Amino acid sequence: MNDGPKNDRDQASTRSPQQHDILIVTGMSGAGRSTVGKALEDLGWYVVDNLPTQMLAPLTELADRAGEKIPKIATVVDVRGGRFFTNPEQAVEQVRSTTSARVRVLFLEATDAVLVRRFEQVRRPHPLQGEDTLLDGIARERARLSALREASDLVIDTSDLNIHQLANAVTERFADDHFVGVQVTLMSFGFKYGLPADADMVADVRFLPNPYWVPELRPHTGLDRPVSDYVLAQPGARPFVDRYASVLEPVFEGYQRENKRHATIAIGCTGGKHRSVAIVAELANILRGMPGVAVRVKNRDLGRE
Prior knowledge:
- About 40% of the residues lie in helices and about 20% in strands.
- With about 300 residues, the chain is of the alpha/beta class.
């Protein structure tokens, strides 16, 4: 993750919450950019759709002149711009280095299978498909956006989200956007359902005995006291939670210095029902005691089995 040149970071660390924000929304076609734009409008953002990358700098100048009159501007930048969509990552870095605004990039991601299904539902070709297959167009887009994805501040995987869930995810991240600190999402998940694509860090607690093999605990979850007590009583469980929290503390302090305001920490077990859920709940209690850290818990695969 690249937050821009050093002088911009220094400015960002002392930036007043009243100064304006610029959010660049990008990502895969079919991943939900229109839904995100509408959700941001509902939150009071001024949204510009399908902006050519060459217009990012003039838009930034307009935002600087408008100041508090337009405090929050979001612009959707993507491959629909055709030949006007050139060197987007360089355009973003130029904007970051020349404005006093807080500039962030939100990248929307989804799996190939999900994108294919969504395009087939609306019966529209992919912008980069041409005379080839839909998967060819998706592959070209991934390659073209790879550097921009790497430079993004926040990645949201929309594969398992409907439009309402995606709108809620945007609201959760941007409704209280002037919180001075790091907004941390602690996510439990099951490895058998795949790694979360939007996780900043992933930890594996499959080294702990699985309550699934205890008949009286199997039907319960990590949210239930018997399962939680069982998991935390296992050798290594408490040292893992305490030491992992200690490791995360300087990370969150660094995120604040670097103006990274959102982080997703994923904890996985086999099915995402017992161990990871119990560990996430315990870790959340510790992190909530850290200064400048706001914590929300998401149990991704709970109830999926």
